[in-house]
Write a structure and sequence with these properties.
The protein is globular, with a radius of gyration of 19 Å. It folds into 2 domains: about 130 residues; about 50 residues, no CATH class. The protein contains 10 helices and no strands. Helix 1 runs antiparallel to helix 2, helix 1 packs parallel to helix 3 and helix 6 crosses helix 8.
């Protein structure tokens, strides 16, 4: 296990070394990215380091609970200079053993390069405390991000409502979907 941990630590160092010291401007949109900017070479490097770590953790799952490794993953996640390269590192936190990092992770929700990955990771962490922060993304332009946000809000809205002590108020995310969902939810509850 020590050998695997050392490999992970080395990959973290490689990812951190690849991140430029200054924020780089986005590249022009590419022909295959639906108007999204092309990736910088360092973004690919950082992303691949995270993916390699994921593969190592699949073989040594006990290392997912290593608090020092979790903190290192979060350090990269919170470094906005890594842009989309952070996506694979966000996904490394998608375990209940990492749920204590959710307050820092949720701070990345507003970054369009990782929004969907953060929501997906909050789902995997089983962190129910962020309905208010995730709800605005239930109307996101990107379908998969929107679906993840809807799944999150639907899964955890009862806890949200209990904390708000407003059982008779409309669910906060339904306004983002439109009235057709309210009608189908009303029909489902009457059957």
């Amino acid at each position: 296990m020590e050998d695997t941990r050392k490999q992970i630590v080395d990959l973290i160092a490689q990812a951190e070394e690849a991140i430029p010291p200054e924020q780089m401007a986005d590249l022009p949109p590419g022909p295959y990215l639906s108007g999204a900017p092309e990736w910088h070479a360092y973004e690919h490097t950082v992303w691949q380091c995270g993916e390699s770590i994921r593969q190592l953790l699949a073989k040594k799952s006990s290392l997912r609970r290593d608090l020092d490794l979790q903190d290192s993953f979060l350090r990269i996640v919170c470094n906005v200079k890594a842009k989309r390269g952070r996506q694979s590192f966000v996904m490394l936190l998608g375990y209940t053993s990492c749920a204590h990092l959710a307050p820092e992770l949720v701070g990345q929700l507003s970054d369009p390069f990782v929004t969907g990955h953060v929501i997906d990771t909050l789902l995997k962490m089983r962190c129910a405390d962020y309905v208010t922060q995730v709800q605005p993304f239930a109307g996101h332009n990107t379908a998969w991000v929107r679906k993840k946000a809807i799944t999150y809000v639907d899964r955890y809205r009862d806890g949200y409502r209990d904390r708000e002590e407003s059982h008779n108020s409309p669910l906060p995310h339904h306004a983002a979907y439109g009235s057709e969902l309210r009608g189908s939810a009303d029909q489902a509850s009457s059957t």
